[in-house]
Specification:
The chain is an alpha/beta fold. The protein has two domains: about 20-210 and about 350-390, 3-Layer(aba) Sandwich (Rossmann fold), CATH 3.40.50; about 230-315, formyl-coa transferase, domain 3 (2-Layer Sandwich), CATH 3.30.1540.10. The protein has helices at about 25-35, 80-90, 105, 110-115, 140-150, 170-195, 205-210, 215-220, 260-265, 285-295, 300-305, 325-330, 370-380, 385-390, and strands at about 20, 40-45, 70-75, 95, 120-125, 200-205, 240-245, 250-255, 315, 335-340, 345-350, 360-365. The strands form three sheets. It has a six-stranded parallel β-sheet with strand order 3-2-1-4-5-6, sandwiched between helices. A three-stranded antiparallel β-sheet has the order 7-8-9, covered by helices on one side. About 30% of the residues are buried.
Length: about 400
């Protein structure tokens, strides 16, 4: 892999990796979104219209508009459709699926089936609770996995004492999507030395445990019960929390290190608290004084005074404010996209480290248009066979 003079990659890191994605939404779709932005060729695989399978169609802008992806349609319940899928799988590097555990085996397209024709295949199964275990057949969504992993119980409760709903699908995106993408990349690295792929059992609930590992490991080692205001990172001390400004806006304060706390106290004219940052008995007084001080100016006024002054203070931005954020603009984190039906719109650019940035408009494909025949042809299937499958309605 060559790099530019700045040290950034000059070519996509996953260039040449072919991924067949059997999922439409959720953690698996998050994972293949990341793989595509790292340069992999991702093909979304769905049923042909005549197969009558339930298909969730996400909005045109979801998952970054599926930029850089193509669409295949196969009838995986038919023998000919499975034959077509096996032809594609034989030359693919990765398959990602999110069926309920056991479904792909019953369809005859499970890992053991496909590994016979492609021993190097990395087969990633994403599910809520894993492929095996007493909860493997449970249905669930983001909030369920966060509940089962201790995340909701350690969050600041609502006014009625109940656990809050997070403002983002943390489980889908991180505990599932990034979990799967990282595991796939690790499996591809392992394959480079062994030539063999593997079956990855990505359980979103397991990923939540990893996100919660600081609290869980503390409990396992010490027998404590982590929860709201249990420790520094969950609001026990006034130096780590959120405060309302005079205009109703909010500020996030993360002044953990003493030097940052001291800077903050000086900026708020509260020097008397500098030497008492971690004194448990004084926290409510400190918190009250901080709250009173922050109400004397607007959110943006405090941001101008504090954000660049080594105080670990940042404004709580609404989603609608993000496109105007100087940092997003300077780092080219938003790009223009064009969809053949919905026209031009804005979306987040490929932004994780190692993804190639672009300031040029990107194409958002119309996923009603399929490239099934082209992909089968590139997998070595002859035109006559492709035409037969199309005539039989097992591909579209």
């Amino acid at each position: 892999m060559t790099s530019s003079g700045s040290g950034r990659p000059s070519r996509p890191l996953l260039e040449g990796v072919v991924v067949l994605d059997l999922a439409t939404v959720g953690p698996a779709a998050r994972a293949t979104r990341a793989l595509s932005d790292f340069g992999a060729t991702v093909m979304k695989v769905g049923p042909v219209p005549s197969a009558g399978a339930m298909q969730i169609t996400p909005p045109y802008f979801a998952y970054s508009g599926h930029r850089g992806m193509g669409r295949l349609e196969l009838d995986l319940k038919s023998d000919a459709g499975k034959e077509a899928f096996f032809a594609l799988a034989a030359t693919a590097d990765v398959i990602v699926e999110s069926f309920r555990p056991g479904v792909t085996d019953r369809l005859g397209i499970g890992y053991s089936d496909l590994a016979e024709v492609n021993p190097g295949l990395v087969y990633c199964s994403t599910s809520g609770y894993g492929q095996v275990g007493p909860m493997s057949q449970w249905a669930g969504h983001d909030v369920d996995y966060l509940a089962m992993g201790g995340f909701l119980a350690t969050s600041e409760p609502r006014s009625d004492g109940g656990p809050p709903l997070p403002g983002a699908t943390v489980a889908d995106a991180a505990a599932g999507g990034l979990h799967a993408a990282l595991s796939i990349c690790a499996a591809l690295v392992g394959r480079s030395s062994t030539g063999l792929g593997c079956h990855l059992d990505v359980a979103v609930a397991d990923g939540v445990l990893w996100l919660m590992s600081l609290a869980i490991d503390e409990h396992l080692a010490m027998g404590t019960e982590p929860g709201p205001r249990h420790d520094l990172l969950t609001g026990l001390f006034a130096c780590y929390g959120t405060y309302e400004a005079g205009d109703g806006g909010w500020l996030a304060v993360g002044a953990i290190e003493h030097k940052f706390f001291a800077n903050l106290c000086r900026a708020l004219d509260l020097e008397r608290w500098i030497d008492h940052q971690m004194e448990a008995a004084l926290q409510e007084e400190i918190r009250s004084d901080f709250a009173s001080a922050f109400r004397t100016a607007t959110r943006d006024e405090w941001t101008e005074r504090l954000a660049g002054a080594d105080t670990c203070v940042a404004p709580v931005l609404r989603v609608s404010e993000l496109p105007q954020s100087a940092n997003l603009v300077e780092r080219s984190l938003i790009v223009e996209a064009h969809h053949p039906e919905h026209g031009t719109f804005l979306q987040l650019a490929p932004l994780l480290a190692g993804m190639l940035r672009t300031e040029e408009p990107v194409a958002s494909p119309d996923l009603r248009v399929t490239v099934t025949a082209e992909m089968l042809r590139s997998a070595g299937v002859d035109d006559e066979r492709i035409a037969e499958w199309a005539a039989e309605g097992v591909i579209a």
